[in-house]
Design goal:
Mean pLDDT: 87
Radius of gyration: 26 Å
Strand content: 35-45%
Structural class: mainly beta
Number of helices: 2
Oligomer: single chain
Distance between the termini: 59 Å
Order of helices and strands: EEEEEEEHEEEEEEEEHEE
Strand order of the largest sheet: 5-2-1-8-9-6-7
Largest sheet: 7 strands, mixed
Shape: elongated
Number of strands: 17
Length: 257
Amino acid sequence: MRLLVAFATTAAAVVSLSAPAAAAPLSTSTAAFPSAPATAVYGFAWADGKGHLRIVPKTAARDSRVTYTLKSLPKAKELHLDYTRAAYGRVTVACDLKETEGRVAVDAKGLGRTKCKPAHLADQLGRGPVAVRVEHAGGKATRVNEILVGDWGTPRTARGTIKRVNDTTVLFATGGKTIKLGYTYTTAFHRTTARCGDGWLTGRPVNADKNGLGKKQCAWTDLTKALKGVKYPVLVKVDYTPGVNSLNEVWEVFGDA
């Protein structure tokens, strides 16, 4: 950034060799220091507390006039952004629609162009990850545009441990790496316990299969409750979608089966 400092002189100004004139003070007005330009990133946004989102930047390429492909960006760091004053553009033709319903509203760059409010973004994030382009500066999102992603990735299953981060996020450790995974109301939780509301591995494994995997169907809120009761990583099998980093299913595992 270049700072341009203007010095006013007059045609009659005389430089005295015996008494040099004092330098004019540098203005500290905020107008002399323009705000930093916004940076744009693409990725899958997740809710990160009231009025905030988290996003891991990805590379973006146009598939067609309306769809993008997002791929991992090496060494990209997760951003936490306040979006309470951001302009929000949706790919739907109305702000309160859950899906496009076959009608898409995008501009020439493939960005959502239906003008909506931060409250509408909060609603969408409450349902799960949102594919977006975000302009941000100083820890605040200034503009958020939905994008359409042609391929959200192929789910995979793995065994490892999970540890609670908050009510909708866990750290999944497997194969020497740790992945942050988000989950929502669509996430299934399979328990070994007698009841969905029991503590982790509480009581006899009455709902464990021969491999020690839970087979009692429970809800995402039961997962949140169960994880709140443990302070250490617990053994699980999971189904998750890399790239999006979404947790689709969790199986409680009895012992080391």
